[in-house]
Amino acid sequence: MIRLLQRSDIDLRAWDACVDSDPRSLVYGRTFYLDGLRPDWCGLVEGDYRRVMPLFSSVKWGIRYGFRAFGAQQLGVFGPEVTPDRVEAFLNAVPRNWPWVDLYLNEGDAPRSEQIPQWRLRPQPNYLLDLDRSYEAVYAGYNTQTVRNLRKSEQAGFRIFEQGSPEALIALFQENRGRELPSMGELEYATQLRIQHQMLHRGMGLLWMVHDERNSPAAGVFCTVYRNRITLLFSGQSAEGRERSAMTALWNALFLQYSMKGYTFDFEGSADPGIQRFVEGFGAVRTRYLRAVRNRLPFPLNRWMEQRG
Fold first, then answer.
1. Which pTM value belongs to this model?
2. Does domain 132-262 have CATH number 3.40.630.30?
3. How far is CA 54 from CA 103, 190, 196, in A?
4. Which of 1, 63, 88, 246 has the smallest set of CB atoms within 10 Å of its CB?
5. Domain range 2-125+289-308, CATH architecture
6. pLDDT score for 114
7. Dihedral in degrees, nearest 10, Cα atoms 91, 93, 99, 101
8. Domain chopping of the chain, boundaries
9. pLDDT tens for residues 15-63?
10. What is the mean pLDDT of residues 7-15?
């Protein structure tokens, strides 16, 4: 039986043990991470925490809806064995009184069919790079443009630091790429800051910065480290850093540091063609996960939401 439990009713140890047993090594499902995103999350639980599925919901215009919280690329069903029929069972257990639901499953959640009644499934891209091999083998996967960018960065006199502050990294993003993204507001930045500090406190985060010859930040990244997976969570770079390939220098240094240690690097893929070309240039392999949307809103809200999504 699959039942819906509020955060206050969940056995946190049993939930985390279930997520830890999942072979995908996705930190997003851990309770402390979910708490960092939004403390009012709830979850579907099968049996005695055999499988679990985190959910976020809110109310707008008097209508409760389900959504993906900012900061979690993939959620979906977690457990030691997630079969296609269990994925469908969990989707069908999402509360019926949520007329709009927009969920992102994880890369291991593969339903028997992408034609599930009342649900529309859309593939989303992700990119993974195998670091459990020699750095030379990783470097051999770089394309010509990446090698050229790396050589350019070597002429720039960058210094790479395996430390930094979340505040400095977020400020670097806000002053550059953030100006072009009106969807990034105070709530999103506060969530990102909270998650980064929490992961660093737990010894599960990497924050690397690149400084130029004037000691000004040129690029930076924050990654989570959970079991055998390093996942890019947040990044930023200045206009000058982009021009001089600071991010290429940073990734190359990080891959050198973490090769031959059993890790897979997760770029948290993007639908942006430019970003896709950039990460493919390091030899990253494209994978996919599914977005699941259920729209039972009344007309004309149903049409309006479909156009937005």
1. 0.93
2. yes
3. 10, 21, 20
4. 1
5. 3-Layer(aba) Sandwich (3.40)
6. 74
7. -40
8. 2-125+289-308, 132-262
9. 999 999 999 889 999 999 999 999 999 999 999 999 999 999 999 888 8
10. 98
